[in-house]
Amino acid sequence: MAATPPSFSPSRTTCASLLRELQMIWDEIGESDNDRDNTLLQLEQECLDIYHRRVEETRTHKADMYQWLADAEAQAANLVSSLGESTVLPRGKGSLKQQIATIRPVLEDLRSKKDERIKEFLKIKSQISQICDEIAGSGQYKSVTDSDINQSDLTSKKLGELKSHLQELQNEKILRQQKVKSHISTICELTEVMSIDFMKTLNEIHPSLDDSLKGTLQSISNDTLARLTGVIHSLKREKQQRLQKMQELAKLLVELWDLMETPTEEQKEFSHVTRLISASTDEVSTRGCLSSEVIEQVEGEVHRLNVVKASKMKDLVFKRQNELEEIYRGVHMDVDSESARQILTSLIESGNVDLSDLLQNMDGQIKQAKEQALSRRDILDRTEKWKFAAEEEKWLDEYERDENRYSAVRGAHKNLKRAEKARILVSKIPSIVENLTARVKAWEMEKGIPFLYEKIPLLHSLDEYIVQRRLREEEKRKYREQKRLHEQAAVEQVALFGSRSATKKPLCQSNNGNTIAGTPTGRRLLTPSGRHGTSGGKERRESGRLNPIIPVNYVALPKDDSVSRGN
């Protein structure tokens, strides 16, 4: 029985021990030397093949390590370049494994930074793309992928440029949102004033503008902003048209109220309408004040008043005629009332004239009459002053003809005061007449027509007054001359017959009686003969024979008064 070869531990087994064991086996078997040599050669060849294969594998692994190291260095350099990092790559020192161990953590760190940088780029690019889509209003959001990012340029500078661009877009978005909000607020105000459906108007522009739709972004696209602007212009134009229409209706209301003298209480019902007459478009902001319902209501009221006006138009026409005549009479202008009323009656009954146009024409006449009255007012005031002065002059003449004006009767002191004032006023008559004449001539030169006063040219009346006044002054002058001669004759008679006339007491008594009766002649015509009663009576009789022709309306005037009157 063949002996069992000794076992060897793998860790202790060597080629020599295995060869010895093989020799022992061969010896037992009885293997020939030739076979043994062939087997050993075969074993040697197999060992060489194994060594060759292992060497090739090791050489290949070495080349792979060199290639990995080169690729890692190149990749690290690219990452540093794309990231814009200032990282210094470690130089190759030591074995290949040491070099790989040195560069591997640097490469992994660069790759991690690249991934983070790509995420940042994706996030910013996504936001930019979203805002651009909102501005464009395409409604289709396109997601951003890694392929949309230029991975060769992941520097911080590029990232900063993207962030700046994003900030600009965000600011643009904020501005657009503010514009949209402002436009919506303006549309809300305009629709409230005109009672137009606000939500319907917004939905017609863009459904996203409805605030009731939660979670929906409001459109800020160019098209939406353009639509909002267009709607605002359209609403403003509509508001302007409605306001103009309302103002026209309000003016018609006021005219009709004035025509028919509508009570204030009835007018208050439409006070919200009349307040709009002088309002501008921007000032009108009351809810519903320009709604279609309000306009229709005002139109109905105007129609109703026009119907009422047609029935009252005749009365209104004659009321205007009365007003016109009152204006003319107030400024002493000639007006043929009867003829004017007949013409108006025939026009109204013929039906060939629009009563509204007739009223408007009469309003124009009233306006023109008021302007004429205003232009005549100054002259009329001066004319009244002249008339008053002439009346005072006439009264003063009558007063001075009264021989009893200085008698102690009731009211005599009042007449004295009036006479003093009248003399002052009469002394101003020449300047009054001169100024009035100049005013009238200037007025006639400007208007090109004569100034009539009570159907007579005022200049004619003034000229006639001046002539009459000169005649009166001449008569007064002649009377004073006759009076002077009369007094001179009386003095001469006193000088000739003074002793003889002093014995006639009855005449003296009669003279005293005349004085008691209040005749101002005895008191005011004091002459030297006045101290002797009998001679005074005889002198009066003698003077009566010497001067038989004396006007009845002449009165004895004191010399001082006559002098002042002459001046």
Automatic annotation (TrEMBL):
<dbReference type="Pfam" id="PF03999">
    <property type="entry name" value="MAP65_ASE1"/>
</dbReference>
<keyword id="KW-0963">Cytoplasm</keyword>
<dbReference type="GO" id="GO:0005819">
    <property type="term" value="C:spindle"/>
</dbReference>
<feature type="region of interest" description="Disordered">
    <location>
        <begin position="505"/>
        <end position="547"/>
    </location>
</feature>
<keyword id="KW-0206">Cytoskeleton</keyword>
<dbReference type="GO" id="GO:0005874">
    <property type="term" value="C:microtubule"/>
</dbReference>
<dbReference type="GO" id="GO:0000226">
    <property type="term" value="P:microtubule cytoskeleton organization"/>
</dbReference>
<keyword id="KW-0493">Microtubule</keyword>
<comment type="similarity">
    <text>Belongs to the MAP65/ASE1 family.</text>
</comment>
<dbReference type="GO" id="GO:0005737">
    <property type="term" value="C:cytoplasm"/>
</dbReference>
<dbReference type="InterPro" id="IPR007145">
    <property type="entry name" value="MAP65_Ase1_PRC1"/>
</dbReference>
<protein>
    <submittedName>
        <fullName>65-kDa microtubule-associated protein 5 isoform X2</fullName>
    </submittedName>
</protein>
<feature type="compositionally biased region" description="Polar residues">
    <location>
        <begin position="508"/>
        <end position="518"/>
    </location>
</feature>
<dbReference type="GO" id="GO:0008017">
    <property type="term" value="F:microtubule binding"/>
</dbReference>
